[in-house]
Amino acid sequence: MTASTPPAPNLNHQMELIKWIALLAMAVDHIGLIFSDYVDYYACRAIGRLTWPLLAFVMAVRLTEKPDRTRNYLAWLLPWAVISQPVYWFTFYVQQPFHEAMLNVFFTLAFGVLLFWFMEIGRRTKSKLTRILLGTATVMILAIAQFPVGVDYGAMAVLMIPALALAIRTYGVARAALLTGLLGAMTVTVAMNTTGRPLMTAIVILGPMAAGLVAWLCLRTSVHLPRLPRWFFYFYYPAHMIALIAIAFLLT
Fold first, then answer.
1. At 142, phi and psi to the nearest 5?
2. Which residues pair with 103 in a beta bridge?
3. Rounded to the nearest 5 degrees, what angle is found at the Cα of 140, between the Cα atoms of 139 and 145?
4. pLDDT tens across 97-132, in order?
5. Is-contact 116 70, C-beta < 8 A?
6. I need a surface site. Which of 114, 138, 205, 247 has the fewest CB within 10 A?
7. What are the angstrom distances between the C-alpha of 40 and each of 43, 118, 125, 205?
């Protein structure tokens, strides 16, 4: 596959499978956080570490297939990021000051899509001024992603999407899938402070690495899962957290 060749158009079923796995892993992760008295916390957290690398990989593949999807993704991601933020904050950060709370993963995805968009414009333009402006905007987005509030998984997660898109164009989808594990491990290790907790340190390294293997294996399967409606992913994120909070309330 050359640098200018997009991913093959027959990836729909594989991407759908990866998305299903990511959504299920997300639910398991949140079950572990909310119901730690009832389930194996560390096992749930280990499964949950598959989520971000798989989501980033799917987004990178889709954007590389059709770069003009950027506006469409942003039109969905940004409103749902705002809608989901109160639920996200209540679920994970209600006992912390607001300035310590991170923005939810929809903001992470949206910022990653923006950086991909800037990369595309930079590839096509010969204007030095445009490239300087794009570079300045990139630095600003990464700064917002990290400080003072930050996005879920931090600035490195934002960089993962354009980095994976570049890897897909350069090395192909399968090799980029394996790279997803390495980048995911680096990202999650930096984002999650596990100092003094050797088991969690192993989880945040090995979990994302496993995500790369999962993505690679999914690319080699022919499993056909039902195609999720476009709105389902956006609705699922806040809805499943609300459902888990409601169940936890009933159990208290």
1. -65, -35
2. 151
3. 95
4. 554 558 999 999 999 999 999 999 999 998 999 999
5. yes
6. 247
7. 5, 42, 52, 19
